[in-house]
Write a structure and sequence with these properties.
alpha/beta; about 325 residues; 8-stranded parallel β-sheet; about 15% strand; two-stranded antiparallel ribbon
Length: about 325
């Protein structure tokens, strides 16, 4: 079994060609199919791995040289991905991505997901005028008259801000709306919103070592016909620290995982409620690797339990 490091070297030896599909490096005489998922509200299908723009993407976006982000966005699209998740709270990410996408001519290819929050997450009230101004800025930065998805970030004053998004959806300025949180103290509030509100998506944290959402939120989203974006499928840095120096088990090839990134992503994607996983990265070779998580087979439930046991043993 080849390691993630050797896999990435192989990508680079192939020119890290941004048109390379990772599955072609493994499939020998067959091309692995791209995994797509239907948005429950519409049936529109999306590739199951996208790109987030927090963490290192946001760090590079603040720098003078954003060439690496150009390569990452091109790698996303060239390898079959579409969904790009951002937020005004991610510093320069939203503006930089909008500019790069325009320069590359991929603005209409991307599925743009951004967020709204002028209230913070401490129970503060949102000023409607400030929220409207933030929305106007997002439309301007992303250079799109209609955005695909806007979500209330971290459940900030949901009555006010989700109300604004409902009006935008009614006016056909945004196609889908939702809410997000990655904070455990907001999970109960998220559950109430999922049960009661006419939203299209939620954005949550979910990973092989963070399965709290499996108990109530994911089944409820599935029952309510709400799409799920998964943030932090690598546990931010937790999982990388856990597998440092560890060899990927040979049996991962049974579900077409050839790196730890693909192992972790395929675990997440194997849950039927998940629509798209959106790991953040600022490196094209990692984007190519991540897209390999959306190729080929997914583990069944018995294999998922084996994966959990293996990670727990490390």
């Amino acid at each position: 079994m080849i390691s993630r490091r050797d896999y990435l070297k192989l990508c680079l030896a192939s020119g890290a060609a941004l048109s390379i599909r990772p599955g072609l490096l493994w499939a020998e005489d067959k091309a692995l199919p791209l995994i797509t998922r239907a948005i429950p509200a519409s049936g529109e299908r999306l590739p199951a791995v996208g790109l987030g723009s927090s963490a290192t993407f946001a760090q590079v976006a603040r720098s003078a040289d954003v060439a690496a982000l150009r390569e990452v966005l091109q790698a996303l699209v060239s390898n079959g991905g579409r969904l790009f998740d951002t937020a005004p709270a991610y510093g320069a990410s939203e503006a930089v991505a909008g500019r790069i996408a325009g320069e590359l001519g991929i603005s209409d290819t991307l599925f743009w997901a951004t967020k709204l929050n002028v209230a913070g997450r401490g129970g503060g009230r949102a000023d409607p005028a400030a929220a409207q101004a933030q929305l106007a800025t997002s439309f301007e930065r992303l250079q799109k008259p209609v955005l695909d998805l806007i979500q209330v970030h971290n459940l900030g004053d949901v009555p006010t801000q989700l109300g604004l998004l409902k009006a935008l959806r009614e006016d056909k300025r945004v196609r889908y709306i939702g809410v997000t949180t990655t904070f455990a103290d907001q999970y109960e509030a998220l559950e109430r919103i999922v049960a009661a509100e006419p939203i299209d998506f939620i954005g949550i944290d979910y990973a092989i070592d963070n399965r709290v959402m499996e108990a109530r939120i994911l089944p409820l989203a599935q029952d309510r016909g709400i799409g799920v974006l998964v943030y932090a499928p690598f546990g931010r840095t937790r999982l990388w620290e856990r597998v440092r120096g560890q060899t990927l088990p040979d049996w991962a090839a049974e579900f077409d995982a050839h790196s730890w990134a693909q192992f972790f992503l395929k675990f997440v994607l194997a849950h039927p409620a998940v629509t798209v996983a959106t790991p953040a990265t600022s490196r094209a070779r990692h984007m190519i690797d991540n897209m390999g998580g959306a190729l080929g087979a997914l583990p069944d439930e018995a294999m998922r339990q084996r994966m959990i046991a293996h990670v727990d043993s490390l």
